Amino acid sequence: EAANDIAVMLSQNTDLQELGLHGNNLRTAGIITILEALQDIKSLKIFNISENNIDEKAADNIATVLSHNNKLEGLYLGGNNLRTEGIIKILEALQRNSSLTVFSIYKNNITQEAAHEIA
Q1: Residue 25: Cβ within 10 Å count
Q2: Do residues 34 and 7 lie in contact, with contact meaning Cβ atoms separated by under 8 Å?
Q3: N- to C-terminal Cα distance for the chain?
Q4: pLDDT recorded at residue 74
Q5: What pLDDT, in 10s, does the model give residues 3-29?
Q6: What is the DSSP string of 47-99?
Q7: How far apart, in whole angstroms, are the C-alpha atoms of residue 14 and residue 38?
Q8: C-alpha–C-alpha distance, residues 96 and 2, integer Å
Q9: Residue 78 to residues 13, 31, 48, 75, 110: CA-CA distances in angstroms?
């Protein structure tokens, strides 16, 4: 599976600064595999997993990666199905990140509650 191959590559490249996986339909299970490999990469600045058919089950893993990385500048999660619950978990992890300048969450089925949390 592609996600496993990507995870292996990530485990061998701990200086990675940008990871763009936009539009690969890796789905929740595939993204979780990749996120587990990303936990030891502290140098990541740009992370794009937009339009990969990810649901809120991946939110905890995304939050874990974010809590280990204080250099992230751009996080692209649009076009998934993270829903309100997932976005709120991610936002809580982002509170410890002062370097983020781009946070894209278009088309994620979020409610007014999540929009209020972002504001």
Answers
A1: 11
A2: yes
A3: 38
A4: 96
A5: 999 999 999 998 999 999 999 999 999
A6: EE--SS--BGGGHHHHHHHHHT-S---EEE-TTSB-HHHHHHHHHHHHTT-S-
A7: 8
A8: 31
A9: 26, 14, 9, 9, 11
Question: In the sheet that 102-104 helps form, which strands lie side by side, from edge to edge?
Answer: 18-20, 46-48, 74-76, 102-104
Please, what is the average pLDDT of the chain? 92
CB of 75 within 8 A of CB of 99?
no
Q: Per the structure block, which two tokens stand in for 93?
A: 């992890």
pLDDT at 95 exceeding the cut of 70: yes
Q: Residues 53-86: pLDDT tens digits?
A: 999 999 999 999 998 888 999 999 999 999 999 9
pLDDT, tens only, 31-50:
999 999 999 899 999 999 99
Helix 59-67 to helix 83-94 angle, to the nearest 10 degrees? 10
Beta bridge pairs of residue 11: none
